[in-house]
């Protein structure tokens, strides 16, 4: 099933004339997931023709304004749009009372169910076809990063099923469950007629200093989206509890991640961003600087990056999870 990633904001603490506060919308199979909810997110969603009612999960990394100022507007809109689902909000437990105060302070008549889920290290959400994991990061306040991973599943080849004359639905069901079946005295496993489809992994790391556990957290990501608040100023990044590009690149290279997308930029680079982009993208394979309204589409056999300045296509191998740039 196709996945869509929509970049809603790529600035950090302050929006700029071309970059909004942080926010990323992911259509992950049938669920809509919003990663952080900065100021002006509703307008960004509308520009990209995404309704607030498409959101099933909101994942809040931490309680700094640039990551949460859009929440009151989202709540108010959902209350007036006949939102008939349960809104799941993953948030550090230390910020749950702050979340409740937002609802009370803006006198928002919530007429839908909100399910507050405490962020934690390890497994947080276990849906039918995907899971959400968290890691506690190192920032100036309690902060978490997240990844969403599709569950592996057995995919059967129709031609191979026909070859073995396997048409019985119960037998096919057993093969999909990984069980062995018998046809005309011959034992057949799913490996004879199919393969395990590797699940897509999308990792989101932001507002943290570098530490080694982030490498394992990002391990084998199909798409790694990470803050790069600073460029070639690691001492300043550490002082302000953020990461520099050089540190993010180390996570990418050591984690066997496939594509790195950079976001959450300090406004100090606004005027020189094009030179930074050119330098980084020419010297580093599979690393890109994001802009607001960039989109990524993940299909069965390809990944399309629809970036502001170019479109890039990758061949995707669903058996191994490997990618190969085609243009």
TrEMBL record:
Catalytic activity: Endonucleolytic cleavage of RNA, removing extra 3' nucleotides from tRNA precursor, generating 3' termini of tRNAs. A 3'-hydroxy group is left at the tRNA terminus and a 5'-phosphoryl group is left at the trailer molecule
Annotated GO MF terms: 3'-tRNA processing endoribonuclease activity; zinc ion binding
Enzyme Commission number(s) of this protein: 3.1.26.11
Catalytic class of the enzyme: hydrolase
Residues noted as binding Zn(2+) 2 in the record, renumbered to the chain: 66-67, 207, 264
Cofactor(s), by name: Zn(2+)
Residues annotated as binding Zn(2+) 1: 62, 64, 139, 207
InterPro entries xref list: RibonucZ/Hydroxyglut_hydro (IPR036866), RNase_Z/BN (IPR013471)
Annotated catalytic residues: 66 (proton acceptor)
Cofactor binding: number and manner: Binds 2 Zn(2+) ions.
Subunit annotation: Homodimer.
Purpose of the protein: Zinc phosphodiesterase, which displays some tRNA 3'-processing endonuclease activity. Probably involved in tRNA maturation, by removing a 3'-trailer from precursor tRNA.
Family: Belongs to the RNase Z family.
This protein's name: Ribonuclease Z
